[in-house]
Amino acid sequence: MGNGEGPAPLTPLKGMILMGKNPKVFIDGKGGVVGARLYEQLSRRSDLDFLIIDPEKRRDVEERRKLLNEADLAILCLPEETAAQAVELVDNPNTRIIDTSPAHRTTPGWVYGFAELLPGQRQRIRFSKRVANPGCHASGFLSTVAPLVQMGMLPPDYPVSCFSITGYSGGGKDMIAEFEDPNRDPALAAPALYSLELRHNHLNEMQHIAGLEYPPVFVPILSDMYSGMATSVTLQNRLLRGTPTAQDICEMLQSYYQDQALVSVAPFGTQGPRLVSNTMANTDRLEITVCGREEQTLLTARFDNLGKGVAAAAIQNLNLMLGFPETTGLRVE
């Protein structure tokens, strides 16, 4: 399922922290949207030291190799192929890596970086050398589907369908510029379905990390909002084990995520007539809302696509790997 331990895992760097020596962190790809968001949040902290590449050398392989191998922890904020190549540059056995790209999310030897998702996942992250950050759409999908499979309610062969509304910041600098251009195409004001061939690059992790036998039918929807995400799954309750109601499913998920600081489940029946997609924008949390009735259920995870969808997840993983309190530097409230 892509969440196995990495080779020769290290212990968290608690000894370094207790001795007053800050861990050295290198963000490879700090100039991109994700890298900039990460650096903005992490640079406020006094318990980390950063290795900063000369902007003129950011594409210099040897300079990147040097910094990657000097780091206690490297965060890759790179395109998929470049991230895979970056890992090959690391020969220091003590350099630990968080990859925010899709390159390693189901790769053997890499741990899937969603601490709350599966039993023991937090400890796997804590002691791993290689952690793959989840995809944003996948985070929302897995937050609702994986626990139901894990608890035996959702059969692994269930034909799952999912749609996910996202802010345009997930498309990077070019898409941000396109949406924020004063002379932009008026059509951008309307939500737009994309990945119409049904081969989105999050499908592999969505299927395998959830433990499904088949990939879901997944339709992402691009919206005219900078950030925010609402990922929804619909279920026919008669096809679930035990024929639960929507309220039963809500209560099971509340129990599953009980006492988690960054993932919560709203009380059943308190959502009002609408769920607004960007309610959790500018937060580092994910909130699940369960709607429906006896026969059918709607599961919706809302979060910031740049928050718990990527940067907050990476910071949470960094904290676990380096021995800091898990929510250090994150917006819990």
The CATH C-level class name of the largest domain: Alpha Beta
Give the strand tally: 13
CATH architecture of the largest domain: 2-Layer Sandwich
Q: pLDDT average, as an integer?
A: 93
Write down the overall geometry: globular
**Number of discrete helical segments:** 10
CATH superfamily of the largest domain: Dihydrodipicolinate Reductase, domain 2
N to C succession of SSEs: HEHEHEHEEHEHEHEHEEHEEEH
Quick structural overview:
With 333 residues, this protein is of the alpha/beta class.
For the structure shown, list the relevant keywords:
six-stranded parallel sheet, alpha/beta, Dihydrodipicolinate Reductase, domain 2, single chain, 13 strands, disordered N terminus
Task: Please provide a written account of the structure.
The protein has 333 residues and is an alpha/beta fold. It contains 10 helices and 13 strands. It has helices at 14-18, 33-42, 61-70, 80-88, 121-126, 136-150, 172-180, 203-210, 246-256, 307-322, and strands at 24-28, 49-51, 73-76, 96-99, 111-112, 130-132, 161-166, 192-193, 217-222, 229-236, 263-265, 286-292, 296-303. The strands form 2 sheets. The protein has a 7-stranded mixed sheet. Strands 2-1-3-4-6-5 form a 6-stranded parallel sheet, sandwiched between helices. It is globular, with a radius of gyration of 20 Å.
Provide the fold topology:
Blueprint: H1 14-18, E1 24-28, H2 33-42, E2 49-51, H3 61-70, E3 73-76, H4 80-88, E4 96-99, E5 111-112, H5 121-126, E6 130-132, H6 136-150, E7 161-166, H7 172-180, E8 192-193, H8 203-210, E9 217-222, E10 229-236, H9 246-256, E11 263-265, E12 286-292, E13 296-303, H10 307-322
Helix pairs in contact: 2-10, 6-8
